[in-house]
Design goal:
With 507 residues, the protein is of the alpha+beta class. It folds into 3 domains: 3-235, BirA Bifunctional Protein, domain 2 (2-Layer Sandwich); 256-377; 414-500. 61% of the residues lie in helices and 12% in strands. The strands form 5 sheets. Strands 3-7-12-8-4 form a 5-stranded antiparallel β-sheet, with helices on one face. A hairpin with a 5-residue loop joins strand 5 and strand 6. Helix 10 packs across helix 11 and helix 10 crosses helix 12 (455-473). The longest helix is centred in the C-terminal third of the chain and has 100 residues, at 314-413. The relative contact order is 0.07.
Amino acid sequence: MSGHQLTTLVKQPESKFKNMAIKSSIHIKPCRVTSSGAHNRRTAEYMRNIGKSQIYIVPELTAGNEQWINPCFGNPDLQAHYDYIKRMVKEKTGRAMQEKERERKGKNGKIVKVAGCSPIREGVLLIRPDTTLADVKKFGEECQRRWGITPLQIFLHKDEGHWLNGQPEAGDRESFQVGEKWFKPNYHAHIVFDWMNHDTGKSRKLNEEDMTEMQSLASDILLMERGQSKSVTGKEHLERNDFIIEKQKEEMKRLDATRQYREHQLEMANQKMQEAENITLSLIKEVHQKEQQSENLDRAISEKRSKLNREKGSELLGAAVNWATGKSKAMKNEIEDLRREIVTHEETIERLQCKIQTMQNDHHRERMELEAKHLSELNRREAAHTEETTRLKNRILWQNHIIGCLSFLLLKTSDIFRKAVHGIIRLARDYYKPRFDTEQVSDIKSALNLFGDDKQSHRAAGDFLYITATQKGKLDNREQIKARREVDNVVEGQYDQQQKRGFSMRR
């Protein structure tokens, strides 16, 4: 898209960056190495998958995004680095890295849950519209100096936000127009950290005070007002889609407040109309009284004319008639003034009624549009979630089917594979036997060599043996944990080391 086209699509107010009061904030969470890169890099497949609605991304603004990859990182693939960390932990500690949540018995005898290791974590950092990549790099370098967490990747996103329902509020200097709609940006950066101590093979430990200091550091380096901590606000960090929904709820609250104000205006207009109607009724009553007085006066004139004509002659009659006639004209002029005032009030009432009807129609239309949009968004998210869940379930079913077929084939055709699987099942079910014996280790190693002679092939074969044993032996949770641990020990050579040290494999 050309620069001229972008200018017509995106209309940002001038010099708005100077007066924006964005508060600093950073949220750290475990990084999903399989999906983080697609979102951060705005890959073509990712942009297709989020759909035509583009609920939170403006593609015309994506050109303003920036990224940085640590030159010491080597391979930019996060999955490759994650696998490297697993090997490093195994070499440094002698134990496989605990990736999943597990349960253990505490000193008090109660079962406690222990979180799995998160060697790669991702921080979402709020930034200003004019924040540069160099600013965020400086923040990442200072984090590495203070806490030993190494920034691997940095991505600046200036194309995300949420759409407003109508015009922005009077004090909103952040929102701008994209075509015919108004867009409120959410400027932020993603920092992917290596959270491990590579000298010890252990994860870095940062407490609440460290996280508070990190937020203050972001405020100082990025020249932003410091945001309040979660301990003060009591608010939890919202994920991207939940944040969008929350903003839509806020917009609904704003519209509801507008509705209440308009209802107040409507009530006041109704009061004014009622007052005008009361005044009109009073004026009509007064006109009737004046007309009655005029009629009475005309009768009095007629009676006086007859009486004077009879009693005192034409001179007195003329004088009386002139007086009565003047009084009658004045009364009729007053009546005409009252009638003109009534017409004015009736016109005012008609204008108020039109205004009230217009306000009611606008309010009803806005409310229906908002409800329809909100319902559409909820339906879209529910459909997307259902589709993704179905896709994952089908994928898992297909994988299980493939594994089951391969397992069945190998169990039928390979004595070596079958002996290894049966050995794993027997050990898992034996409550008093903690490790494989020499014969079982030999059977498992023979099965591993069927798949290759390198470490990577042995790890894949070990996973396949464990899954096959779990399915065929219908192992429970305790048995699965035991089988998993001992198969990994065979694959990683722990049994070889024990034999060299003279430890017995039978206990």
